[in-house]
Amino acid sequence: MNKDMSIHTIHHPDMLFGQLVRSSIPKGNIASISLPKLSDDFIVITAQDIPGSNSIKVFDETIPLLSGDHIIYKDQPILAIFGPDRESVHQATLQVNINYTIDEEPVGAVQPPEHETSMSWGDCESFFENPMNTIEHTYMTGNTSSVPSSPLGAVAIFKDSAVEVWATTQWPFHVRKTVSEVCGITKRKVEVYQNPYDHSSGGLLLEPSVMAALSTIAAIKTGKPAKMTSMDPVFRPELIVTKKTAVDQDMVPIAEKIEFQIHLGVIPLFADEILAQVMEGVIPIYHLEACSIQARVLTSPTVPRNYFFGFGFSLGLFTSAAHASHIAQLSLMNPANWLMKTVRNSTKRPKHLVHPRPALIKELIERTVERSDFSRKYAVYEMQRRRNRSISTFTGYTRGVGLASGFGVNGFSNTYMNEHNYSVEVTLDVNDQVLIKSSILHSSTEEIWKTIIQNQLGINSEDIAICQGSTSEVLDSGPDILNRDLTVISLLIERCCESIKNQRFKEPLPIIVKRSLKRSKATNDEMKKSAFAYFTWGSLALEIEIDPVSLNPIPMGVWITVSCGHIYDQDRLKKKIQARVLKELQAVMGTETRSTYQPHIDVEFHKDEDAITADPLPNILGLLYAAYTSAITQALNEPFTSIPAGAQQVFEFIGGKK
Amino acid sequence: MKINCLLNNKQAFFNTYSDKPLSLLLTEEAAITSLQIGCGTGRCGNCILLIDDKPVLSCLIPAFSVAGKRILTFEGFTKTRFHSEIKRAYKKHQAYPCDQCYAAKTLIIHSIISDNMDPEPEDIIQALQVNTCNCLNYDELTQIVQTAAGFRRRKRRVRRS
Questions:
Q1: Is B43 on the interface with A (CB under 8 A)?
Q2: What was the pLDDT predicted at B40?
Q3: Mapping DSSP to helix (H, G, I), strand (E, B) and coil, where does residue A44 land?
């Protein structure tokens, strides 16, 4: 089978197709299950049919694979039906009748006590006793779901007492572990291959592992290949941040109280990492004498939330950058000037937090302002805003421009520092050919890696091979792989090449070098909550116009300036950023189809060759949400503090205001 | 239901459920691998193929409706003389669709220039909207289509002369 094949395209003549039956209640017990009459071609798998452990483990958290008698969340898988074709299996699942006894317990969000954290510096209370002014806003990222643009799924083939699994997973070693534990077979007998996936939609950890385990059981029981795919929506975590800022007479912030809660569904998966990343994001870049932050995780009997492109940092950054814009707007200053005035070095900020680089931020803002003509546009739209005209659906000139600036963090914090890290192995063999082993789907960056090796070792491109095999051939990068930071792999390949260069012509071939991402060791508990290894810096301006008929905030242009260390292929990175920004704008506007109008997206890279290469996207996405809501705020003349923000939200907002 | 059709210029016969989506019919029963079945709901536009030379979303076409029709998938299209024009246009602009949407975008471009060898940017954008993948922007796509159309016009002139 070809590695590039979509899971839908993998087909065998006698293949079984599977579909899950899920619970329709959030909490309760299963009283009875009645199944339709099925021929011998079908197989039903319930919790009782699982030969090994009926659970999926991700570090310390465990979630049942199939519910036995007790339902703990809505849409929990109860059973799976496999049959000879997709249509008859679908018909069979519709005829399954499940009776429940429903729990009377409340099903709202609750707070598990272990996932709570706080941080502070300075005496925050004293600044709030007699403040000159306080500004308070609550920022929300709503309950957003998205349907993956390509299906999630798995195919299992059982042959000679071993299993081959193909899955749309981001972490094939997690699939291997789950299949091994659920089916009661040793890991050595499970080979997992990755299929192409749409990483921007999330849902690439639990769902593929569930489907792989159930397909494997079906394959073992029947001896036929089994396949399960799903297009069920995946949900993002919901974040609510309340920011209360004390400012002086010049509207310069002095102290800030931040409270946030993040809702993760039924299990607080990666809760500590998510808390650490959101914590880093919600802390503003402007100088504060004192700050206190309270953070907690909420759970509820709903589907587990998925990580999306990082573990919440972008969402946190959105709130801090949007809040900075709101204060700037109240100060009647241009946000660019306000940011440059308020960002400065400070010894007050704890050392383990990222410290702003005022000179760099100033430079990035200046470049963005110049290219986007921000100052002129801001002055024009501000004049319109201050006219206090009433908002009408059919009249009015409703435009706004927003600017956001800040840093981005990459990869994991120290939460999982003892787990496997990103690893790369480069082998220079006796024929002067090179083999790269890693554990990430990498067709998009293949050329970059080959160029690095060509430049460093002088080996022709056709003599460089990239191992894209199964779990027995590639390396386990542990949870790091969930962050999909491809820039780290390039960096590690470069380090491997340097080592090979030093050994070449001195040591006999083959020379095998393995390099892993090493994080600085945290020295105390507080530091474990943060301390990231790689940073990017960015500034982003965005102009919108509220469509007078549809009320859609239509982006007119996006200008991005980013500093992310050495860039191996600028054109490729620029395209990646442009495509991702477009996709994210569509998601944040709540439009799934491609519109006829595409905003101009201008990307400029700030040269910082000495900095470590890092992926700028987590930074850019946070800034994009912030600039987008700031622009809507200016257009509507009221603080707009939540995403998604499409026509429906604008309509509700105008209705509420009236 | 028994269905006869012309698939990539060869007679094909299927015995299948009448409402099975054409995309699944072709991948599961005709071993067509070029179809990138993404969302399965007509949203992503990656499963485009040509039925009687018109682009359609194969995930939204029930099997029964293709009886007696002429279906051209990307596999079939690569064997035609038109494929090289579009490939040359991609190369000229050094802009290539990603793996997910390559087949779909190429077939849409072919259908645009088959209908009109001098298409306007608005027509190009409208036709390409069906595919929601953002790997290429509209400026790039417009240039590619116009270049490919130019290649086709030139080829036609040469053939006529």
A1: yes
A2: 72
A3: strand
pTM, two decimal places: 0.84
Q: What is the pLDDT of residues B82-120, one digit of tens each?
A: 999 999 999 999 888 888 889 999 999 999 999 998 999
Q: Give chain A positions within 8 Å (CB) of B33.
A: 2, 5, 9
Instruction: Report whether the peptide linkage leading into residue A26 is cis, meaning its omega lies within 30 degrees of zero.
Output: no
Tell me which chain A residue has its CA closest to the CA of residue B130. A594
| Residue contact A594–B20, C-beta within 8 A | no
Parts of chain B belonging to CATH 1.10.150.120: 81-160
pLDDT score recorded for residue A558: 95
Residues of B in contact with A8 (CB under 8 A): 23-24, 27, 35, 37, 40
ipTM, 2 dp: 0.74
Judge: domain B81-160, CATH 1.10.150.120. Answer: yes
| Tokens 């960056």 belong to residue | A445
Q: CA–CA separation, A543 vs A634, rounded Å?
A: 10
pLDDT at A2 over 60: no
pLDDT for residue A285: 87
> Does B147 lie at the interface with A, CB-CB under 8 angstroms?
no
CB contact under 8 A, A5 and B33: yes
Domains of chain A: 7-105+162-233 (3.90.1170.50), 314-413+531-657 (3.30.365.10), 418-516 (3.30.365.10)
**Interchain CB distance below 8 Å, A150 and B126:** no
Inter-chain touch A596–B20, beta carbons under 8 Å: no
Q: What is the tens place of the pLDDT at every residue in A473-487?
A: 777 776 666 765 667
pLDDT per position as a tens digit, B25-65: 888 888 888 887 767 777 788 889 999 989 999 989 998 89
Interface size A-B, in CB pairs within 8 Å, comes to 82
B2-77 to CATH, choices 3.10.20.30, 3.90.226.10, 2.30.30.220, 1.20.1250.20: 3.10.20.30
For residue B35, list chain A residues with Cβ-Cβ distance below 8 A. 8-9
Nearest residue in B to A579, CA atom? B134
Residues of chain B with CATH 3.10.20.30: 2-77
Residue A566 or residue A534, greater confidence: A566
Q: Are B36 and A150 inside 8 Å of each other by CB?
A: yes
Task: Give strand ranges (E) for A522-650.
Answer: 534-546, 553-563, 600-605, 642-643
**Spatial separation of the C-alpha atoms in residues A627 and A542, rounded to whole Å:** 6
For the segment A511-537, what is each residue's pLDDT rounded down to a tens digit? 888 887 765 554 444 444 445 666 788
Q: For A364-407, how does the pLDDT look when each residue is reduced to its tens digit (9 = 90+)?
A: 999 999 999 999 999 988 887 877 665 555 455 688 999 999 88
Contacts of residue B23 in chain A, CB cutoff 8 Å? 8
List the structure tokens of A586.
Answer: 């569509």
Find, in chain A, the residue whose alpha carbon is nearest to that of B34.
Answer: A9
Q: In chain B, pLDDT over 70 holds for what percent of residues? A: 98
Nearest-CA distance B90 → chain A (Å): 15
Cβ atoms A412, A479 nearer than 8 A: yes
Q: Which residues of A52-80 are buried (b: 16+ CB within 10 A; e: fewer)?
A: bbbebebeeeebbbbbeeebbbbbbbbbb
Is the distance from CB of B144 to CB of B135 less than 8 angstroms?
Answer: no
Q: Which residues of A touch B (CB under 8 A)?
A: 2, 4-6, 8-9, 11, 85-87, 147-151, 196, 198, 231, 443, 575, 578-579, 582-583, 592-596, 598, 601
